[in-house]
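Thread: Uma2 family endonuclease, structure

OP (GT): Posting the sequence first so everyone is looking at the same thing. Length is 202 residues per the record. Can we get the structure tokens written out before standup tomorrow? I want them in the notebook alongside the other entries.
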Amino acid sequence: MSAASVEQPHGDRPLIAEANRIRDSLPGHRVEIIGGQILVSPAPDGPHGEVLTDLMLPFLSAGLHGTETRIIQCFGVWLPTGAEDHAIPDMAVVDADYRDHCIESGCHDPAVVRLILEVTSSNYQTDLRTKVAAYGEAKIPVYVIVDRKHQRLHVLTEPTADGYASHQVHAPGQTVTLPDSIGAKVSLDVAAILEAGRPKAD
């Protein structure tokens, strides 16, 4: 999911308090803090949700929702990019003991995360730029982006202080095998994933 707008804090109110106020006033929206800015994302459309459902199937078939790892949608991750920074990615593969590593406000230590996956929406640059830097600094091993605007699947690995050393872009017609570090072999059909996320033609 991508942010639709950016809101700054009001007065001396802490960002978390302001984020919670926004969340309460906009039911269904996702509110994150990245780089000291509050990002507000609208409720996802149907194709966005359909992509996530289709994507979960190969991960489930590979046995990643079991005793060693879990597959979770909208998983809160605490980020090192700011004192109150946290993200809520569309999907994550995490260590099964993630509950023991909750830091604050339902967000967890990024050390338990093996993979994060985002499906782009209205402001795709958030997923392709802002979150690349944030997830890299948090040392998330694998970051997958379903870029619905440009019809591409991005797989980022080898996190660095400001992003990822490896950024592979895949087009329809390709099959992508994700790194074994996530805990099992998972292959993704790029064309099928992108087709599921395509909005209805006008």
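GT: Both are above now. Quick notes for whoever picks this up: The domain at 44-197 is CATH 3.90.1570.10 (tt1808, chain A). DSSP finds four helices and 15 strands in the chain.
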